[in-house]
Amino acid sequence: MAKWGEGDPRWIVEERPDATNVNNWHWTEKNATPWSKDKLKALLDGFVIAESGLECTITKIDKLDGEATANNRKGKLIFFYEWNIVLLWKGRYNDEEVTGKVTIPNLSEENDVDEVELTVSLDSSNPAAEKLKLFMYNIGRDKLRKQLDTYIRELKADFAKGLILPKKDEINGTESGPQKKDKETVFASGFNKKKIDLETVVSSENAANKTVGCKLNLKELTLTEKFQCRANELFDALTREDMVTAFTRGHVKHELFKGGDFIYFGGNISGKFEEIVPNKKIVQTWRYKQWPSGHYSTVTMELEEKVSFHLNPSCNFRSSETVPFS
C-alpha cells in the first residue's frame, strides 16, 4: 500500500462538496430516457410542416421505444441513445384529406442526423396522397431531421451539467489559466470499422498550394453465378422490398425507380438505383458508411435466362463493380 504522498493522486480523497468521484475519474451515469421521451414528444407531436402552399401535421406519436443515457468517465462525456419512432401525419390537397406514417427506426449515436432514415408511407393511394407523400419525402424529412437535431443538441447540453464535477482548486478559484471545456465522446458499434488510408493528390503546377482531392486504390470485380430459377424470380429477390428485408433481417428503405434511394443494415450501406430493366439489368451506385465522403461503387447486375435441353430454366447472374481497397 502506498504511503501518503507517494500514490496515484486519484486514490486520495480531496476536500470536495460531494466527497466522491475525485477528479472525475470514476464512471457516473444519468438516465436520460424520461427526459428524452418528453423532449421528443414536445418537438414532434403537433409539428407542422408547411412550404409552397402545402401543409402537413404530425397528429400523433404512434410509437416511441428506446432509451438514452449520459455518462462521465475520466472527465469525458459519453452519450448513448437509441430510438424507434413512428409518427402519424395528415394533410389536405384539393379538398382531400390524406393520412400516413413516418417511420424512424434508427435514431442513435451511430448515425449523424442527416444519415437517420425516415420512411414516408400512405394509408391510401390516390393522386392527392401521392402529391403529399412526395412533399413529405422532399420537404418533411428535412424539417423532421432538424427537430431530431434539436433533441440531440439539448440532450448533450442539459445532461452535461453536473456530470463533470469541479476540482478542489476550481471550487476555491485558485486554478490558473483558462478552464478547459468538457470533452464529449460518442461511442458507436458500426458495421465495418476498417478505415481507408487516403493519399493527397497535388497537381504538378503550383503544387505547394493546390490540392485537388484524394487518391484511392481501386479494383474492378466481375462475378458470374448460376441459379436454378427464372430470371424474374431472381429479379424479385434483388428488388422486392419484402424479400430484401427477409435477406437483411432488418428494416430497409427501397425505392425501386431510377434515382430512387436504398438503405440497408441501419444506414451502413446506402446508394441509388441508376438503371432498372425488369428481369434483365440493375445498375446501382452504393457505398459503405465508413468510406470517404462522396465515394461510391458502381454495381451492374445483368440477368440472362437460359433453357437447357431438358427444359430446366436457369439464370446466369453477372455482377461487376469498382470498389476501393486500402
What are the main properties of this structure?
326 residues; alpha+beta; Bactericidal permeability-increasing protein, domain 1; 2 domains; seven-stranded antiparallel sheet
**How many E-type strands?**
16
Total of helices: 5
In N-to-C order, the SSE pattern is EHEEEEEHHEEEEHHEEEEEE
The averaged pLDDT comes out at 76
Number of discrete domains: 2
Radius of gyration: 27 Å
Structural class designation: alpha+beta
Task: Tell me what the structure shows.
It is a single chain. This protein is an alpha+beta fold and 326 residues long. The protein has two domains: 23-159, Activator of Hsp90 ATPase Aha1, N-terminal domain (Bactericidal permeability-increasing protein, domain 1, Super Roll); 218-324, START domain (Alpha-D-Glucose-1,6-Bisphosphate, Chain A, domain 4). 21% of the residues lie in helices and 41% in strands. The chain contains five helices and 16 strands. It has helices spanning 33-44, 127-160, 168-172, 231-239, 241-248; strands spanning 28-31, 48-51, 54-73, 76-93, 96-108, 119-122, 183-185, 199-202, 211-215, 217-227, 253-254, 261-264, 269-277, 281-288, 297-307, 313-325. Helix 1 packs antiparallel against helix 2 (127-160).
